[in-house]
């Protein structure tokens, strides 16, 4: 059931007046640093003048996004499917579908996928460049 939710989301769309971006038209790309992590850059800095960016994140079973910070971005995670954990500013948060977590700028965080993988919708303000 959870993967059906992710698949529906993965085939969704971003719509604002005058713009529609079909998620299925955006390719998955490998994370430049973390093995087993893939991203769909749904809305980019270029499209928003640097104000924000939205990304689908797929973390393979047992893989991780290790400790890091973003400066100047605030980052949010919305868990779509799968299970895992996030260490957000030293506190462990169980990641289950429906959980939302916020990492302010300069706050250390990491994400670890469970046995079935983890699917997130990540947003950055200002945008990742």
Structural summary, described in words:
The structure is a single chain. This protein is globular. The protein contains two helices and ten strands, in the order H-E-E-E-E-H-E-E-E-E-E-E. It is mainly β and 129 residues long. The mean pLDDT is 93. Strand 3 and strand 4 form a beta hairpin. The strands form two sheets. Strands 3, 4, 5, 6, 7, 8, 9 and 10 form an eight-stranded antiparallel beta sheet that branches. The protein has a two-stranded antiparallel sheet with strand order 1-2. The protein is 10% helix and 54% strand. The protein starts with a helix and ends with a strand.
Question: How is this structure best summarized?
Answer:
The chain is mainly beta and 129 residues long.
Q: Kindly state the percentage of residues in helix.
A: 10-25%
Largest sheet geometry: 8 strands, antiparallel
Q: Can you count the beta strands?
A: 10
Q: Mean of residue pLDDT?
A: 93
Could you give the distance between the termini?
Answer: 34 Å
Q: Give the overall shape.
A: globular
Structural class: mainly beta
Task: Give helix and strand order, one letter per element, not per position.
Answer: HEEEEHEEEEEE
Radius of gyration: 14 Å
Proportion of strand residues: over 45%
Give the low-confidence spans: none
Put simply, the count of helices is 2
List keywords for this structure.
129 residues; 2 helices; mainly beta; 54% strand; globular
Write the layout of secondary structure elements.
Layout: H1 2-10, E1 13-16, E2 19-22, E3 29-30, E4 37-43, H2 45-48, E5 53-59, E6 64-68, E7 74-88, E8 91-95, E9 100-103, E10 109-125
